[in-house]
Structures
1.
Amino acid sequence: MSSLTLTGVTKSFADTRAVDDVTLHVPHGSFTTVLGPSGCGKTTLLRLIAGFLVPESGSIAFGDHVVCGDGVRPVPPQTRRVGYVPQEGALFPHLDVAANIAFGLPREARGTQSGDRVAEMLDLVELPADFRSRRPDELSGGQQQRVALARSLAPQPAVVLLDEPFSSLDAGLRGSTARAVRRALEVTHTTAVLVTHDQNEALSLADQVAVMRGGRLVQSATPSEVYLSPSDPQVAAFVGRAVVLPGIATAAHATCALGQVVLTEPSDGPVSLMIRPEQVYVDLAHPEGERAGVRGTVEEVSYYGHDCAVQVRLADGTAVLSRMSGVLHPAAGDTVHLRVTGLVRAYRPAEAP
Ligand SMILES: Nc1ncnc2c1ncn2[C@@H]1O[C@H](COP(=O)(O)OP(=O)(O)OP(=O)(O)O)[C@@H](O)[C@H]1O
């Protein structure tokens, strides 16, 4: 295993810049998800790392081994030691699970040792040992994806690339397969890059989330930083619901329709404040004094069981969305008091939408 470093990588198709000057470092043994809308260049980025495409500029290195760019002749895909897991496992339908997993092993390792390696890999991806003799069409979609991961990990690749590997699975299977894949990658300290357009998947699985837009990398940071301190308002809107309010910042604080809030970074003057709905605390009691909050009237409650979305109208006409526990919640028409918890990201006018 090794780290992965892309420096100024660019790739165009005719007049489309599919990947535009991307610089990204994936530390050894860590998991990065590349998140972005359809057509933003995610798959092209993976194909460049794998060596199926060659960038017109920039360089890619596995550890300190440059595989393309910097005047180095591009190392072909088969010698890059990359494991690739596509959208739908792409297992060989005529081979059983054991033969699929052993397929990527070097010829000399396929004989007697491959039995052990197959058993080890099945255990790693949490599949029963007797699955080894099943054919792919005797497996569920989630099981096929686990076998595809086992096949990619068997030869101990430098880096594993996963291209929307859970997109064909239904919601329940998606979560459990994703968690099993995450555990297998963690146990083997595998450097991995997974591309997805699913925000929940990107945030819940990764050590680092790299957000792409129009071929460019617009932010790479931990999941909580991307969610709570997005680099710009478009990223904020892409990774979740946001309440955006005008405010006036004075150093570490800002005032807005929800009262005074504490900023992630100091700012001054007119700003747009990005507040996540979970940060808006709805007080059903009627507190007084410092913790009174701002009074409003509940307009609408959407109940989802585990939580609910509450739309509140403030006296000045501002509409604010809150997400709160579904256990005890207000009803439409109730008077409530709102307070902002946690830190708030402020954008100066040039950054705002
Ligand atoms: N082989 C190609 N020839 C021409 N244009 C291409 C080629 N591959 C990709 N593109 C273009 O490059 C851009 C990025 O495509 P890419 O497949 O990398 O996006 P993506 O983010 O993976 O999208 P999706 O989530 O829909 O798979 C798109 O505008 C696409 O049309």
2.
Amino acid sequence: MKQTPSHSSSLILVAAGMGTRLGAGIPKALVQVAGKTLVEHAIDRILQVKRITEIIVVTPAGDHRMAEALAAFGSMLRTVPGGSSRADSVRRGLEAVNPGASAILVHDAARAFAPAELYDRVLDALDQGQANAVIPALPVTDTISVVEPGGAAGAEFIDHTPPRSTLRAVQTPQGFNAAVLRQAHAQLDHCTEAELEKVTDDASIVSAQGEKVQVVAGAQQALKVTHPEDLETANQLATDQNSSANTARETMILPRIGNGIDVHAVSQDPARPMWLAGLHFPDDVGLSGHSDGDAVAHAACDALFSAAGIGDLGTHFGVDRPEFSGASGVSLLAEAARLVREAGFEIGNVAVQFVGRRPRFSARREEASQVLSDAIGAPVSVIATTSDGLGYEGEGTGITAYATALVFPRQR
Ligand SMILES: Nc1ccn([C@@H]2O[C@H](COP(=O)(O)OP(=O)(O)OP(=O)(O)O)[C@@H](O)[C@H]2O)c(=O)n1
Ligand SMILES: C[C@](O)(CO)[C@H](O)COP(=O)(O)O
């Protein structure tokens, strides 16, 4: 069996029907449900299916409102005027499909709330290649009988009753190998309007050509809006789908990142101890400053404050907190972590890189990470580099530390 790769599929959305049974006085796909037309609801869901790369909307012939409203969707969506029956509308849609398309889906705008998963299910089955046509369907709950007219005043009589377990209520989107669908529709070329009227879906035409049609599980949400009472269900579906989208958005925990940079000059005092990344380096001359000059710890503090949006080192360790004057970098960092948590955040991690000729760092990298991680109760990684002899870092007269922190709001 020929495989129909669906990674770039075209979709024909038939929306040209008049909606006689609905009786809204306008084409059915233009009827509004929860603030949007049915055709717009359908397109919203189709756009979630990344494998659909072309949408042809078949619009009510002679009525420009839909085509005008859909112009805003851009070049991925095109409109063509429909025909006098669904089959005729599909055929007009087919003529507009990119000739290179290998897979084509046909969907009713009247089934506006078919979820994106349903399209994917059909396309997945088509990809598996057991059949050149795949349709979604649901088991039926009523007993279904085939009837024959025969009596007076249009009375009907049962001809036979197929076993219910063999029956399925067929839905859309229906998926096809493009050549197979085109070939099947070509068989309808000489049909009269009345004959076309009796063709209620595309799978039945393809099946009549002897092609196997695979059935996959349908979805209750793919209900076809047909009668006025269906609008109430449609409204409920729109509300449910909107509220689950909103809930997902509301419950999504967005992390926040922050940056911090600190620069310290190497002290002129050869006796000044070198503290960096929470460690003492006895062979190096220290960094100048009122504090211990630990540029790595200070940059990490600023990154944490910036991620939480609560100011910077100056805001928290200024003159109004004399207990921190001259405090070690590690104790400032521990206090910064406490303040970030107090502001309602948890800490994901902090990453710091410093640029400098000294100290030699690689042998003590793990030790530094451990000390700083213990201070904030979250992973801190520290790496070092040189500046290839350039600038104050290259001359050995100063050090720059760059830090990034990731925090996330604690769930209430
Ligand atoms: N000439 C037609 C008839 C139907 N359709 C589309 O085919 C789908 C299924 O048809 P149906 O639900 O029967 O819609 P209507 O034909 O509008 O309904 P009615 O039979 O009540 O008039 C709908 O999305 C409808 O817009 C179409 O594109 N062109
Ligand atoms: C294609 C269809 O939705 C499958 O169930 C259905 O046959 C359309 O029928 P309608 O009479 O055009 O509504």
